[in-house]
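Quick log. Single chain, no ligands specified.
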Amino acid sequence: MKNKGGILALLITFVLISGYYLIRTWKVNQIRKEASAFALGKDGNVDTAKKQRYLDSLWKQDVFLGSSLEDLTKQELGLGLDLQGGMHVILEVSPTEIVRTLAAGSRDPRIGQAIAKAKELSVTSSSNFVDLFVGEYKKLAPDVKLASVFSTTSNRDVLNLTSSDAEVIRYIKSEVDGAFDRSFRVIQTRVDKFGVANPNLSRIPGTNRIQVELPGIDNPERVRKLLSGAAKLQFCEVFSIQEIGPSLDAFYGVLNKIEIEEKLAKGLSSANKKDTTSSALASALKSTSDSSKTDSLNRSNSLTNMLIMGQNGEMNIRTKDTVRFNGLLRRPDVQNLFPANLSFMYDVSPVVNETTKEEFVAIYPVKDAGNAPLEGDVITNAKQDYDPTTGKPDVSMQMNALGARKWKALTGANVGRRIAILLDNYVYSAPNVNGEIAGGNSSISGGFSIEQATDLANVLKAGKLPAPTNIIEEAVVGASVGSEALNAGVISSLVGLLAVLLFVLIYYSQAGWIANAALLVNLILLLGVMASFGATMTLPGIAGLVLSVGMSVDANVLIYERVKEELAAGKSFITAIAEGFRNAMPSIIDSNVTTLITGIILFIFGTGLVKGFATTLLIGIFTSLFCAVFVSRLIFDYFIKKGKTVNFKTAWTEKLFNDSNIDFIKKRKVFYSISAIIIIAGAISIGVKGFGLGVDFKGGRTYVARFEKTVKTEDVRAAVEKAFAGAAVEVKTFGGFDQVKITSAFKIENTEPEVEETIKTDLNAALSSIPGNKGTVMSSSKVGPTIANDTIWSSLKAILYSILLTFLYIYIRFRSVAFGFGAVMALLHDVLVILGIFSLLNGLLPFSLDIDQAFVGAVLTLMGYSMNDTVVVFDRIREYLSEKGAKKEPIETTINNALNSTLSRTAVTGVATLLVLLILLVFGGETIRGFIFCMFLGVIVGTYSSLFIAAPIVVDAMQRRLESEGDALKVAPAVDKK
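-> predicted structure:
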């Protein structure tokens, strides 16, 4: 191998970097454990507020090799909601109200009719809502120009009565997109204020949807209200420091008193522990009293130093002190100090002190925040502009007539003072008023950057266009359920890994140690890369991790089987190693590229758990390829340099598959018939019995409930149907006879946040009504009909794209339609067989066989595995067809020889992968059991189709081509080995 030194240096670098990121992950978890221990109460429960305060205190501090806690959490291998509990929500920004508001000046009743019809169609259509609305409105009013409906005084700089329909449509779409951006920013601010560790907020590309993940949330009702509540925009007066000066002095006095009391309590505690005399206690009291006389503003650890006065009289506070400050403000003796209409409001954007690295946030003493003199509904337009005097960015805004009158009065009464602009009780700007503003047109300047001015304009426009957000998908996982899933995942990972290592060792003897070393390095690199990307480990991700380790055996197997062939041909150990690696490379590359295609499609079209699996699979492809090719070769070269050889066989594997001479092709019609029978039986079952559709595909709510002892599903169904007003309810045993999964579409169209809690309360009451066996909801999920329809379409597109891309790759790689046709037919065969088996076995097995998004992910994965297997077989067939002797024998003989030569590789890879999947099926947990069962079947079916379907179809296709060309001998055509 060339450039061994460079490859070794690269390997060491990769391992060190991976180890560094894994240590960072370990450090973050250690800090979280310390925070939990710090906040542990006498009752054994963790005070979440106290824990968060501990974490906040370290958020900007150097905690590990120059990195703050914030830096560490951005690049850690975190746990998904299914492993630690929490809440997952997908919000949809409703365009219906935006369009309705834009057309509010029109009295045409057809506008409302078109909006209603477009909303109805959007559930089952993938078209843009605006296009649907315009299409429906044009049906009702074909001769009406859209400009006559949507052109108003507030948008006259964009539209007028002569504007074309195309211009109006562009304007409406831009406003809808702008409303989505504003909603995203508002929700982002709300999520950041939840105080949870590692909240995740992302836009779903190509949609007006926002995905939110909040680990550790234990109050779903609060989350629903905050995420889907309408944005509240207010303009409020701000108290000056002079006005509240006496109140602040009194507040500092209270803080001094509290500090003395705390030190006294600490001194008493210390005295009790040490059994000291009263004189020692008196000394502690004197020290406390003396310290209270010092300048409180200069003592960084003092309560009275929480509020830091700026040069212009503004107040600031360390972000880590905000929780304590809020608690102090709730004290009765503090509340009485300040005016009744005063509320302390935080700035939305904290700043970091570059010297101390501490984070500070400004505080504003706002007047009448609960009853603002002016609210956002009066804003008609706002945009980022430039101050004509200074040329710096500012924000211009326009108000309606009512707003103009109120704004004139408000600014006239506050010349020289601040007016705070609040959204959801956070201050986005607090500009000084330079003079009374009449007419409703004004500009806000304050040294903004262009980005800051744009953000403020978006905030002001949020008052103009209400863009309500509806929760269309939701999942709540209890902490105990997450803990159980984590334990199941860890156990399955360890057992699966050990099983693969042991199997490889038994089969390949000394060479097995080298393969295992490469596998362990692969595991370190895989976890390290995931940590560096800040990836989240989910239960399917763990399955993908273990499976990628199992499938990475394949590259080693391809190399080892080639080396064994070279050794059997009488070549030296050095030559056999070099030839084995060289000859295995085409198959290794082809098999990894086909798996890569599947992984990319899974990543693009998958969401949630499926995307977690795809992430692990994609990273695993690259790390396993690197380790199998380079790490293994470096170890072999080390032995060669030492003049040693390595044994590739054990006593019982030495002659295994050596003399295999199975006639795969001769009996191909028998195998075609067997497959046809299974597919037809499955089709009949699908037509008669159908599938068990998961909530992903049909919409509805799902609850997992656990009972004190074994429960009958009929009893649960009878109790739940009463609570759900007779709506259809499906109840299945889930993970044990004391646990059930309850699915229903009851009130699924209702998006009000309160409905979810009401349904859950009624459900818990129903579960508690079962005599002698109380049940409790452990986790829940909800999928609206719109996203269920989208999931179906995205799943179908994923499967079709996978088949198409696979055909194109095979055709380009093998330069033969016969190979591409055989590969595609084998993939269709695998999908149809799996679908049929799932329908036939639905309801007969003790775990769920629902067709959902996880099932689609499993189908795509097994398609990748099947293609991986098929392409290795095809590579060997191509190699045999390219040999000179192939022209002298029939195609059947040539391809049979090729299939028999790959049998050992097919068997070893299949057994290793099935071994991992079997362990995951047993230990992996109920959440992914159906997913793993589908893959388990898929490996069997995929291996079968590679040998008995794909290759025979290639033979039939080639023979038909030769017959059409008049070649009666039907001998193998020459194939380009390249």
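Residues 479-532 form the longest helix (54 residues).
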